[in-house]
């Protein structure tokens, strides 16, 4: 029987279009909840989709379908953003979101996308800066939804305001950077979920879980500069010089941040002069 790490590695080897997003999100959950039985939340997800199919009119226009779906998910079933404890790790675990009906933008978006797909609605995750969104529909009729806020549709003017809050007035706009609304790949969605967990476990000082989240991210995308650097420094702090050197040397090869490369190069030189310790 394979363990959670092996199952996750198998998933990571799949081409993006063959990754089952719900199964991938549950594989993330399984890394931090060893006793998780992934088939149970999948059954719960299918049950929700079946119920939603009885509530969302198949022949209605997109706006009416979205309105009915939002009512089903957020009003009838009570799914909501966890505004009281946003950084609770359980908000990042799809099984816990299904059970507690609380989540953060990305996990609620995964839930929304997966149920929408089972209803035949074209929905995609969008890695919008600062706040994960859902794009539903195609072409000029597509809607941008903030699922964390109950599936509210966001006009372009609101998206521009959010960009201004993050980057300053006039710095970015949807019109000048339409790629900001491109559908995220499944791999990118899973990495973003893991990045949330990396930050949570870093702030909590939980080094074992932080290391697991970093390793999972690098299993999905081996050359992520930030993750390579952070894991390398964490390995150094754990007194595991060989692994630290491997990550930090790879970071220097793939990063384009000259200042950070210089700092990391100095750490590499220091680690390279230390005797190897066996663990």
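-> sequence recovered:
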């Amino acid at each position: 029987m394979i363990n959670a790490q092996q199952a996750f590695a198998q998933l990571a080897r799949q081409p993006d279009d063959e990754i089952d997003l719900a199964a991938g999100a549950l594989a993330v959950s399984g890394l931090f909840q060893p006793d998780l039985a992934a088939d149970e939340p999948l059954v719960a997800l299918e049950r929700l989709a079946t119920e939603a199919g009885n509530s969302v009119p198949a022949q209605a226009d997109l706006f009416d379908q979205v309105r009915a779906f939002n009512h089903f998910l957020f009003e009838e079933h009570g799914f909501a953003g966890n505004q009281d404890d946003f950084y609770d790790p359980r908000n990042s675990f799809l099984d816990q979101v299904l059970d507690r009906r609380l989540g953060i933008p990305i996990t609620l978006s995964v839930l929304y996308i997966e149920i929408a797909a089972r209803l035949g609605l074209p929905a995609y995750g969008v890695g919008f800066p600062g706040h994960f969104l859902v794009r539903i529909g195609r072409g000029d009729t597509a809607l941008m939804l903030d699922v964390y806020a109950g599936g509210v549709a966001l006009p372009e003017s609101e998206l521009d305001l959010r960009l201004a809050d993050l980057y300053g007035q006039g710095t970015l706009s949807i019109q000048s950077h339409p790629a900001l609304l491109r559908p995220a790949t499944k791999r990118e969605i899973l990495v973003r979920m893991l990045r949330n967990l990396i930050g949570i476990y870093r702030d909590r000082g939980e080094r074992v879980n932080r290391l697991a989240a970093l390793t999972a991210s690098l299993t999905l995308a081996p050359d992520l500069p930030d993750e390579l650097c952070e894991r390398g420094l964490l390995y150094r702090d754990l007194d595991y010089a060989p692994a630290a050197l491997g990550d930090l040397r790879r970071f220097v090869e793939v990063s384009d941040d000259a200042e950070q490369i210089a700092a990391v190069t100095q750490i590499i030189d220091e680690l390279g002069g230390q005797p190897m310790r066996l663990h």
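Confidence is low (pLDDT under 50) at residues 275-279.
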